[in-house]
């Protein structure tokens, strides 16, 4: 069974890959044998992680600047990935954003469109482009990174929760559209102590102990098990799944 987690010979593309959970997934995939394309908006950060991966694993890695909310950037990411490696076996739609806003009435059209574009439009476009190529080739695995806001949104993340609910739905529809050669699954994280959590107030962090049955936020590396499973042959009979990883914070979706 250990061999099923081996990603040798595979190529993985991870959006939002230069930091947080995306960084952990890039490192995990490379450590299990995959060549990795690190994609995010900041090219220097992507190239820095690609260099780190190559130095640690000896495997080629590529950093690509990509704003997934722009279809032309998505198209360019596909082109760059295939030009560099000739194949893509794993796509992780991890890039996301949830900006603060003062009130519902003050959510601008620009902010709303940006949240929907990054969290939902981009994953659709990348899944369509990479997925069709996978379908025409040897197959592959697509992994969406949603949020428990999709099923239990707070009052402070209305557009974000709606976008992530759409991503859960997209996961299931794509799993059916791209079957049987391409598996499409979703991780639905709760609160993770990534670099973003550094901006959280002490009260917010302390509140996790009361809201989360496991009494804490997740460590970034704790996303790796599910991400590796869903990308690998170990999940060969798993598609259309939405896996909640939140320390038990919310009830499973019906």
**The CATH fourth-level homologous superfamily:** NAD(P)-binding Rossmann-like Domain
Q: What string, H for helix and E for strand, traces the elements in order?
A: EHEHEHEHEHEHHE
What topology, given as strand order, has the largest sheet? 3-2-1-4-5-6-7
Query: Which whole number gives the mean pLDDT?
Result: 93
Helix content: 40-55%
The CATH class turns out to be Alpha Beta
Number of domains: 1
Which structural class is indicated by helix and strand composition?
A: alpha/beta
User: What fraction of the residues are assigned to beta strands by DSSP?
Assistant: 5-15%
Q: Quick one: overall form?
A: globular
Looking at the structure, the CATH topology is: Rossmann fold
What do these coordinates show?
This protein is of the alpha/beta class and 254 residues long. It has one domain: 3-Layer(aba) Sandwich (Rossmann fold). It has seven helices and seven strands; from the N terminus they run βαβαβαβαβαβααβ. A seven-stranded parallel β-sheet has the order 3-2-1-4-5-6-7, with helices on both faces. Strand 2, helix 2 and strand 3 form a beta-alpha-beta unit. It is globular, with a radius of gyration of 17 Å. The mean pLDDT is 93.
